[in-house]
Amino acid sequence: MPLRKVISRASHISNGRFRSYKHPTSDVAMIDAESDGELLFLRFAEMDPNVEAIVSQPTRLVPHVEGVAFDHVPDFALIADGRAQIHEVKSGRWYDDPMVRSRLVAAAEYVEGWPDWDYLVAPSSSLYDHPKLAAVTDLWRRHRRIWTKLQRRAILDHLVRRDAIIADVAAALAIPMGDHAPSERHILSLAAGGQIFINLDHPVGPTSMIRFPDQQALPPTLLPSIRPEPLRA
Predict the structure, then answer these.
(1) Non-local CB neighbours of 229 within 8 Å, separated by 6+ positions
(2) Which of 189, 205, 215, 172 lies closest to 80 in space, CA to CA?
(3) For the residues 150-169, what does the mean pLDDT come to?
(4) For residues 45 and 51, is the Cβ–Cβ distance under 8 A?
(5) How open is the CA angle 5-6-9, to the nearest 5 degrees?
């Protein structure tokens, strides 16, 4: 249940719900978002193998700016890179507003007082201009659990020996597995679910390079979030 009232679709503020397999209390859950920027952030977080869990509007903070307390409900909490993180999504106009920036800096200092917590901001422009946006979006559209456990096991067994392109994996498994063999569509679905790692530097498709999901060799995070810093005078 979000702590803020999610504004209705009749509002000028775009909002919606995002289906996630990374909610900590359910195999699949609908996560609330209040803007197109937040929905896009969730898309990146869902496709990022570094992100283990996502919750919207997780808590209510009471930081201080110049000794005056203010109420702040952040957009999302994540478990990512082995740490707990608060993430806020802001448009460039709001991020560069002096009052908003001072509050974000105060919120960061407040959260960083908790052991092993980070407070980060994702400027929405960095999401829309992300060099991997097209590939992430294409992969996200394939985010359906259509693969079987047998197919997953066979693909992992193949990748544990070496990295490979999707088409080669499908071809290698076609004869020994027959009707039970995974197609390229199944393999992409597995990659979208974070069950295997995929190179998103190029368009997603049969020639995409995939590898075994070694948790000690995670790919760089997809999230462009940064720690908020005070505006320069």
Answers:
(1) 105
(2) 215
(3) 97
(4) yes
(5) 135
